[in-house]
């Protein structure tokens, strides 16, 4: 159950990062409010996951999901530049996430 909570928390991190971009520096009310709601939900689920997962594993996986997900959303939805170096960096993060998951005792 902790891993599911962590996965959802990571997805919500992607959501709030995208919405923060859409808020235009917190000048647009609806994206700003949705950003805050997604942040609170993400942090809450991260806290639930940390009840049984090690801190280092939970936090690393949460930020990694957010980082890679935000990268993908940036490229696919926002049309940000895609370069071989950025793809390699994202793959390295994913590799780290897999290693954290497979080496976690929980």
From TrEMBL:
<protein>
    <recommendedName>
        <fullName>Guanidinium exporter</fullName>
    </recommendedName>
</protein>
<keyword id="KW-1003">Cell membrane</keyword>
<feature type="transmembrane region" description="Helical">
    <location>
        <begin position="33"/>
        <end position="50"/>
    </location>
</feature>
<dbReference type="InterPro" id="IPR037185">
    <property type="entry name" value="EmrE-like"/>
</dbReference>
<dbReference type="Pfam" id="PF00893">
    <property type="entry name" value="Multi_Drug_Res"/>
</dbReference>
<feature type="transmembrane region" description="Helical">
    <location>
        <begin position="84"/>
        <end position="100"/>
    </location>
</feature>
<dbReference type="InterPro" id="IPR000390">
    <property type="entry name" value="Small_drug/metabolite_transptr"/>
</dbReference>
<keyword id="KW-1133">Transmembrane helix</keyword>
<keyword id="KW-0472">Membrane</keyword>
<feature type="transmembrane region" description="Helical">
    <location>
        <begin position="57"/>
        <end position="78"/>
    </location>
</feature>
<keyword id="KW-0813">Transport</keyword>
<keyword id="KW-0812">Transmembrane</keyword>
<comment type="similarity">
    <text>Belongs to the drug/metabolite transporter (DMT) superfamily. Small multidrug resistance (SMR) (TC 2.A.7.1) family. Gdx/SugE subfamily.</text>
</comment>
<dbReference type="InterPro" id="IPR045324">
    <property type="entry name" value="Small_multidrug_res"/>
</dbReference>
């Amino acid at each position: 159950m902790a891993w599911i909570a962590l996965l959802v928390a990571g997805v919500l991190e992607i959501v709030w990062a995208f919405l923060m971009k859409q808020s235009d520096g917190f000048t647009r009310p609806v994206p700003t409010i949705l950003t805050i709601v997604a942040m609170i939900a993400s942090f809450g689920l991260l806290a639930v996951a940390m009840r049984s997962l090690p801190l280092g594993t939970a936090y690393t996986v949460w930020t990694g999901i957010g980082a890679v997900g935000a990268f993908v959303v940036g490229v696919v939805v926002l049309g940000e530049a895609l370069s071989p170096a950025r793809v390699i960096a994202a793959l390295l993060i994913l590799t780290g996430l897999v290693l954290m998951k497979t080496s976690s005792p929980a």
